[in-house]
Amino acid sequence: MQTFGEGKTMRLVAENLSGERGGEPVFEDIDFSVEEGESLVVTGPNGSGKSTLLRVIAGFLPAAGGSVRIAEGGEAFPSIASACHYLGHQNAMKTALTVGENLAFWRRFSGGGRFEIAAALDAVGLGGIGHLPFGYLSTGQRRRAAIAKLLVSHRPVWLLDEPTAGLDKSSEDRFADLMKAHCTGGGIVVAATHLPLGLARAKTLDMGARN
Amino acid sequence: MLALYLRDLKLGVRAGGGALTGVIFFLAVIATIPFGVGPDLNLLARIGPAILWIGALLASLLGLDRLFQAEREDGSLDLLVLNGDRHMLAFTVFIKCLAHWTVSVLPLVVASPLLGLFMNMTPAGIGATALTLLVGTPAITFIGAAGAAVAVALPRGGLLISVLVLPITIPALIFGVSASYGAVNDPDPFLQPFLILAALTLFLAVIGPLAAALALRHSGD
């Protein structure tokens, strides 16, 4: 296992991170450091600030205090925004376009293509439905298509906000395997989820216990 | 970036894109004017360029509220902002404006010669008005994008956008109409107002997307 002292491994570091929503502090003084191959599972009851934390990390919300940054990202990933995928509550897919067109767009727009569209759809168990309009899919299928979006372009850090909402058991397992494979390949997963990831190097951050 | 342009074109022309609402509104406005003004052909020909410009201006403000709101509702806006390191957000906005203009506003320019006939305009006047619309309407879209970005989080921001943007589009209207008149009324100049109109478009093509990008970055919640 690599150590922090080497200074070569990419890390996602938060120091005294505080977040607020509409002037109300949601969480304060969060510290964590997640390095390549590790994952951070953010748990806590509703309203404990899981989503806000992820949005602060992604940079959509300004941090009320402290900082969060990518360390040792190298030239390819100088900032968090360039290094991360964000999967929020919405799927960021257009209902009027087909699943394939949606994925092809994000693949070209985000760059760093890794999986082909068909391969990514196969990986989430949606093989052969790339030609259907996204609007025709069920909730679970939409979620799986959005997960395929994480695969079509490479980003080392995955920020996942309730990624398994609407998924059935077998899809959850398949997604857990995808997250494991991502971590094994040197990725970082930060997930607000209750799903046990089954990862050897998973850290947990309980937002509920802090407040 | 081409991918974004093509995606927005596809979204615009497919069901629910609402690309044709602008043209239909434009048609409705222009077709109503002769009934209101009366059958005075000379009067219609005289006010024709102005009416066409006002109609096109209002019609091109119609679809602007969906420019970023649709992206925000399905979460795409987050990812567009997130990719700001790869594609400068202002440039992303610029491309979205171009796509919006192609789908929603270019049809107005194409329809304007036909509607010019309704107003008993001369061929030279029709040509000049279509040309000034072609050059001037992008300015409306670019600055409209800034308004759309400011109002992106508001559920019914459409009217607010129009009210915010309309004063800033007045210079484009003034120079567009005066260039159109310059083409038909002999002593009036055509080239000078036309060039100022072109300059306005270029100016707003920079200012609009930059302002919109700034507003979008700070609209996060």
UniProtKB/TrEMBL annotation, chain B:
InterPro entries: Cyt_c_biogenesis_CcmB, Cyt_c_CcmB_bac. Keywords: Cell inner membrane, Cell membrane, Cytochrome c-type biogenesis, Membrane, Transmembrane, Transmembrane helix, Transport. The keyword Membrane applies. It is a multi-pass membrane protein. The keyword Transmembrane applies. It comes from the Bacteria. The chain crosses the membrane at residues 12-35, 47-68, 89-110, 130-152, 159-182, 194-216. It is found in: Cell inner membrane. It holds the Pfam family CcmB. Its main location: membrane. Required for the export of heme to the periplasm for the biogenesis of c-type cytochromes. Belongs to the CcmB/CycW/HelB family. This is Heme exporter protein B.
